[in-house]
Amino acid sequence: MKNLKKLTLLHSNDMHGDFLVEDIESSLVGGVSLLSGYINKVRTEEENVIYAIAGDMFRGSIIDSEFQGISTIQIMNMLAPDVVTLGNHEVDYGVAHLLFLEKCADFPIVNANLHIQTNHARLFDPCIVLERGGMKILFIGILTEAVLAQCKTDGLIGTFVSIEDAAEEIGRICNTYNATDIDFTVLLTHIGFEEDKKLAEILDPAWGVDVIIGGHSHTFLTEPAIVNGIPIVQAGTGTDQIGRFDIMVDTDNNCIDSFKWTPVPINANMCPRDTSIEEVIASYKSRTDAKYGQIITKFVRELTHPDRYRETELGDLFSDVLQDSLGLDIFLLGSGSIRNEKLGPVVTKGDLRECFPYDDSVHMVYVTGAQFKSMIKHMLRDAAFDGEHTEFYQLSQGLEVEYDQKTHSFLKFNFGGEPMDEEKVYTLGLQHFHYLNMADSFGITIEELRKNHKDRVVSTSCTQIIEEALLASQHQNAKGEGRLILHLNK
Length: 490
Description:
The structure is a single chain. By secondary structure, the chain is an alpha/beta fold. It is 29% helix and 28% strand. The strands form 8 sheets. The chain has a 6-stranded mixed β-sheet with strand order 6-5-4-1-15-16, covered by helices on one side. Strands 8-9-11-12-14-13 form a 6-stranded mixed β-sheet, with helices on one face. Strand 8 and strand 9 form a beta hairpin. Helix 6 crosses helix 7 and helix 9 crosses helix 15. The longest helix is centred in the middle third of the chain and has 18 residues. The chain is globular, with a radius of gyration of 24 Å. The N and C termini lie far apart (51 Å).
């Protein structure tokens, strides 16, 4: 007869400072008060409960950015996760600040990737064993290689560069801990849904990985993907839902006997409020409201950014502001810099900061027309449209690019109404993050561009430029169409 024990495993990912409840069609949805109420309810109803977060607690709200994550850590302390892994946005405030925030956390943070390059010492514990009802559950934290981009300003910090490297490290950890009779093994990853499937495919079944809980791609699932016998799950983004596993663990054979997984909506009908956590949030919100409540502009209508992999209205507006204000020929704005799907028509200082939280400096580089066309072609490689998490850019005014994915060729590439001159040198503006990651984002190095002319910093703050431009001019509009026309394989 099997020795079976029940484990209830709750999980969130990519919360991005989504602390506040929303009133959607007269129903209260999301927010950490209702989320906490649901978690507390399950902890009361079930015997063996674990709540895990698969990265990206930070970024996306004024409350988070104004206090550089300290507010988020305090709120998460009240939410009381049992284990958390890092996401790429956990390093947005710098690795040194992240290490400080870890000291403020009342919960364990695991990551097997980040290390000091000189001696390979890890910055965090790679894993943790939690015990519930006599079961030992191993959690291993794996981070997206996109963190390399953020860490390039920290020359001594490194991480794995491939899924294969990550799999090898997982094998090492599993082999080490299997000797302690681990009943159940969970990978907490932040590498994206498609990468999770690739990782699961190459894991050796003998290592005993039972479940992958992922993040980064903001994938909302209605049922797990099963790859190599391993259920892979993710719970979308924010706090509007939570993932829930109810698992019967075979403790004799250290594996899943049976399981049920479901995404649980977080709303007032399902979840009681946690008033203590509301008081903490209200304290932070009152301070940010006083500072960021100023109305800075009114658009003609609400402008949108529904998809980072195409031209958008907000992308057009922001890239044009930066191009025009800095007197550049071209500005390429990172699509991921725009964090909200819509903005306006009335825009407060806080609305803008939530929508565009990355206050990078701007670098002016010099590119030939031929180099620029090559950079855009690299941006439009198949990986951008095949579920991989690549960088994508919003084009400033004057550019007209039409691209056919089937033939991998440009049908049109105009600048100023004429075909782009491949011999001419143009001034191009890039945010600091994207300047640092020139080779990954564009397939060209800064050394190659410096042969045209030495680059320089032309602004220390993107956000200030955009805010000043919006303050100076009411009733902006943007079409979000015509600069980048894509013919994609269906």
